[in-house]
Amino acid sequence: MKKVIALFSIIALAYACGSGPTEVKKPISVNVNPQIGGDQNEAVSSASPAAPSSAATPAAAPAKDGKALISSSDCLACHNEHNKLVGPSYADVAKKYKEADIPHLVKKIIDGGAGAWGEIPMSPHPTLAQDDAEAMVKYILTIK
Q1: How many domains does the chain divide into?
Q2: Does residue 106 form part of some domain?
């Protein structure tokens, strides 16, 4: 029975990774994410030049909406907010990791890997932008 489950898990993972033609996705607009301390009523001006940001003031720039980024990606093929699927639930990830682990988790999403949650590897996402992966991780860490 374990072999059958493992086989179906591998098939589901291969299917989720996409073996068909790739589709071009529209870029997601920058929104403020209320889950990580933003206010949706703040205006975002694209006409003004971007001011240099520092790591000490992350609230100065509007955050991308991690939940929307996850919804528009292939993440939900293997993950769920509260139930384990192929990979761990986001709530379990939020219990295990803290804000200091964000760089590690961003690297894990982009590079993929295995071992932290079992034998089934997480597929890499090399085309995902670093700031998008970071927004996703910040959202995931808010799920309880």
Answers
A1: 1
A2: yes
CA atoms of 97 and 95, how far apart (whole Å): 6
Centre a 10 Å sphere on the Cβ of residue 88 and count the other Cβ atoms it contains.
Answer: 20
Q: Which residues, at least 6 apart from 113, have a Cβ–Cβ distance to it below 8 Å?
A: 121, 122, 124
pTM above 0.85, yes or no: no
Residue 53 lies inside a defined structural domain of this protein = no
Do residues 110 and 96 make contact, with C-beta atoms less than 8 angstroms apart?
Answer: no
User: Would 15 be classed as within a structural domain?
Assistant: yes
Above 60 in pLDDT, residue 84?
A: yes
A 10 A CB-CB count for 66 gives 23
Domain encompassing residue 3: 1-21+62-144
* pLDDT for residue 55 is more than 70: no
Instruction: Give the CA distances from residue 72 to residues 27, 42, 56, 105, 114, in Å, rounded to whole numbers and listed in that order.
Output: 10, 24, 29, 19, 23
Identify the CATH number of the domain in which residue 107 sits.
1.10.760.10
Answer yes or no: is pLDDT of 63 > 70: no
Per mean pLDDT, which range of 16-25, 79-88, 127-136 is the poorest? 16-25
